Amino acid sequence: MQSTTKNYELEEIDLLLTDANIATMDSNINAPYGAIENAAIAIKNGEIAWIGEQSTLPSFDVFATPTLSIKGQWLTPGLIDCHTHLVFAGSRSQEFEQRLQGVSYEQIAAQGGGIASTVKATRAADREQLFVDAKDRLNTLLKEGVTTVEIKSGYGLDIENEIKILEVARLLGEHHPIDIKTTFLGAHALPPEYKGRADEYIDLVCTDMLDQVVANNLADAVDVFCENVGFSHSQTKRVFQAAKKHNLPVKCHAEQLSNQHGAELVAQFNGLSADHIEHLDEEGVKAMANAGTVAVLLPGAFYFLRETKFPPIELLNQYKVPIAIASDFNPGTSPLCSVHLMMNMACTLFRLTPEQALAGVTRNAAKALGLDDRGILKVGARADIAHWQISHPSQLSYQFGVNKLLNLWILGRIN
Fold it and tell me: Is residue 328 annotated as involved in ligand binding?
């Protein structure tokens, strides 16, 4: 491993981490997990200023530099949850109980349940309630070593409440150590007041709704639920075209329940990611590979809905499509607020390796958000670093429920 440095004298650095084993997740390093053993990291101004084998560490003034020994334990990039619906109100635990008692989803929906119940509760909630509830969920992720989270709208389904959700998400980013990226998902479901008028609702999403989101700088990307119970291929395309006019990157809930060719469509727009993808076919995989679109696996929803159709992992590997993993935390289909559980599920359910799972919540999750400054520990990257009491990085996927996080730095600051 050849160490590198930025234009800092090491006497000037803010923190030096020594005696570490580092899973850099840098694919340019020819070792599993991009590992560097017996290593050190120097941090300056929230970035990594130097990283490499400790034996090659340049001389520095030990008395002027705050130093922490990692004592042979492991450092990884801060974890990234690249697909969540974190801002919502209400609970659907009673529906969960009903389904287990044999009540169908259609019957629950006819009673005003399903996503309509979450929309109703979220519309009724004020910003303070939404902020407090979402902050608690973020705190849970922070304790797991998560340093970046994507938050989608989609439970407002009108201009006022979609704006409200995105404003709360932006506010969380200002008042929480986790870095927040926001995604406008106005085309999540058809609101009850537009029943039978899906094209009219898409008109609203593409014009007034998106215009206000952009005018207030509330979204980093645009997403659509392209599905036979969501929005059609042509309706999804209209939203992507509108997003393109505003220079916003696109993502897609694609091929979750059927193959609507949403992955191919999002790839045509050079989209960031296609998410769920259980019903993805080879043509869709090829399109994603050619466009550099990330495949985001959501094993929590697969598990919670007791699905049986597996995403095409072998095809994704064959065509070298980057694979990310996310919680899809939401009240209806994945009320599971744990990235570590998702890593374990990705290995046990989808047969990913622990190294693939860790890449899925670090470098590939960053790529799914269009971010190139995190997810890898290298010179110039954000100093988002997790310190684990583990003997090998595979433990992060192997074990669930025992938190091995010792320290967490975000932009070089301890949290």
Answer: yes
Distance CA 36, CA 121 (A): 49
253 annotated as belonging to a binding site for a ligand: yes
Q: Is 319 labelled a binding residue?
A: no
Q: What is the rounded CA–CA span in Å between residue 90 and residue 149? A: 21
Other C-beta atoms within 10 Å of 73: how many?
17
Q: Is 217 annotated as a binding residue?
A: no
Task: Please report which helix (H) or strand (E) contains residue 267, including its range.
Answer: helix 262-268
Residue 113 marked in a binding site: no
The answer on whether 407 is annotated among ligand-binding residues is no
Q: Are 57 and 4 in contact (CB under 8 A)?
A: no
Residues 6+ away with beta carbon under 8 Å from 357: 325, 343, 344, 346, 347, 396, 397
**Is residue 50 a contact partner of residue 380, using CB atoms and an 8 Å limit?**
no
Q: What angle do CA 349, 145, 68 make, to 5 degrees?
A: 135
Contacts of residue 242, defined as CB under 8 A and 6 or more positions apart, other chains included, come to 205, 206, 207, 210, 222
Q: Using a cut of 0.90, tell me whether the model's pTM lies above it.
A: yes
Whether residue 330 is annotated as binding a ligand: the answer is yes
Give kind and range of the element (H or E) at residue 225.
strand 221-226
pLDDT tens per residue, the chain (415 residues)?
Answer: 444 555 445 557 899 999 999 999 999 999 999 999 999 999 999 999 999 999 999 876 555 678 999 999 999 999 999 999 999 999 999 999 998 999 887 688 778 788 889 999 999 999 999 999 999 999 999 999 999 999 999 999 999 999 999 999 999 999 999 999 999 999 999 999 999 999 999 999 999 999 999 999 999 999 999 999 899 999 999 999 999 999 999 999 999 999 999 999 999 999 999 999 999 999 999 999 999 999 999 999 999 999 999 999 999 999 999 999 999 999 999 999 999 999 999 999 999 999 999 999 999 999 999 999 999 999 999 999 999 999 999 999 999 999 999 999 999 999 9
In this structure, how many other beta carbons lie within 10 angstroms of the beta carbon of residue 167?
A: 18
* Residue 349 to residue 343: CA distance in whole angstroms: 10
Query: Is residue 233 marked as binding?
Result: no
279 annotated to bind ligand: no
Residue 83 annotated as lining a ligand binding site: yes
Nearest to 84 by CA among 410, 333, 311, 305: 333
> According to the annotation, is 107 in a ligand binding site?
no
